[in-house]
Design goal:
Largest sheet: 8 strands, mixed
CATH topology: Protocatechuate 4,5-dioxygenase, Chain B
Shape: globular
Order of helices and strands: EHHHEEEEHEHEHEHHHHEEH
Distance between the termini: 12 Å
Bound molecules: 3,4-dihydroxybenzoic acid, fe (iii) ion
Helix content: 25-40%
Radius of gyration: 18 Å
CATH superfamily: LigB-like
Number of strands: 10
Strand order of the largest sheet: 6-3-7-2-8-1-10-9
CATH architecture: 3-Layer(aba) Sandwich
Strand content: 15-25%
Number of helices: 11
């Protein structure tokens, strides 16, 4: 059976991708951003997931005002890198996992989520920048990626609660897939930012950190937050954060924080990053990685999940 073993949340700032592509990661402005992902790169290399389900938003790149799916799942074997105006990023094409993607489409649609099936889609910075932050600059992405695009660009986006419940439906879908696959779900976008109008440049660190706390500890409550609160408190583009609730819904209630990072400034947006692991992963591996990075140890896992070893 396939299992969701962990979740990753991260901002997807395009200028971060450009800094990496143009060899500027050690410049004083960018260095702290990339330093914030050093642990994460080691963590994901150690975990070596079989498949990534990446929840992201398209920024009027593959979709336009002509067609705006609320939720769209990429079922293709490969997704080309989009040209967002400066030529496609020089990163490997994204290889999909059509069998699992079609299975998730079938399961979630029969669970009454109106998922759009997409067989031809270029992917923009919303999808590629998180991969770059987690994997650096490999010749090929180490895992197939199922893109799951969410409309957060044209009002009305889906509610946080709808997103949270879609995450749960994705978990159910994955757990009914017969092959033994270890799946990691990415939730991308956010944190606070507004890119236009009189409030352009707005950052709200207090809001962002409270969001991270609640996403870990009480996601069902966080899912009730109305859109207007995101926009008013954290800027118009902070609405991208509803996508993090899909990732959280796909994980166990008892998922644990493995790593957290928050940094301002980076372009116009607060960089937020979180890694959560489901119960059952061997804690020894995490402990060793944390010692290596000088980080405090996590609490013990609860007894009742000690036998759920999936790796
Ligand atoms: C920026 C952030 C985004 O999420 C985005 O989609 C575009 C730009 C920025 O910080 O500049
Ligand atoms: Fe964005």
């Amino acid at each position: 059976m396939a299992r969701i073993v962990a979740g990753v949340a991260t901002s997807h700032i395009p200028a971060v991708g450009a800094a990496l592509d143009n060899g500027r990661t050690t410049e004083s402005y960018w260095q702290p951003v990339f330093a914030g992902y050093e642990f994460s790169k080691k963590w994901i290399a150690d975990l070596a997931p079989d498949v990534i389900i990446e929840v992201y938003n398209d920024h009027a790149t593959a979709f336009s005002l002509d067609i705006i799916p609320t939720f769209a799942i990429g079922c293709a074997p490969e997704f080309p890198i989009a040209d967002e105006g400066w030529g496609p990023r020089r990163v490997p094409p994204v290889v999909g996992h059509p069998e699992l993607a079609w299975h998730i489409a079938q399961s979630t649609i029969l669970d009454e989520f109106d998922m759009t099936i997409v067989n031809n889609m270029a992917v923009d910075h919303g999808l590629t920048v998180p991969l770059s932050l987690m994997y650096g600059q490999p010749k090929a992405w180490p895992a197939p990626v199922i893109p799951l695009a969410v409309n957060v660009v044209q009002y009305p986006p889906p509610t946080g609660n709808r997103c949270y419940n879609l995450g749960k439906a994705i978990r159910k879908a994955v757990e009914s897939y017969p092959e033994d696959l270890r799946v990691v779900v990415f939730g991308t976008g956010g944190m606070s930012h507004q890119l236009q109008g009189p409030r352009a440049g707005l950052i709200n660190a207090e809001f962002d950190n409270a969001f991270l706390d609640e996403l870990i500890a009480d996601p069902a409550h966080l899912a009730q937050r109305p859109h207007i609160e995101y926009v008013r408190e954290a800027g118009s583009e902070a609405i991208e954060l509803v996508m993090w609730l899909i990732m959280r819904g796909a994980l166990d209630d008892r998922a644990k924080e493995v790593y957290r990072y928050y940094h301002v400034p980076a372009s116009n947006t607060a960089v937020g990053h979180l890694i959560l692991e489901n119960p059952g992963l061997p804690q020894q591996r995490i402990a060793e990685t944390r010692i290596e990075y000088g980080m405090p140890q996590l609490d013990e896992q609860p007894e009742d999940v000690a036998d759920e070893v999936v790796v």
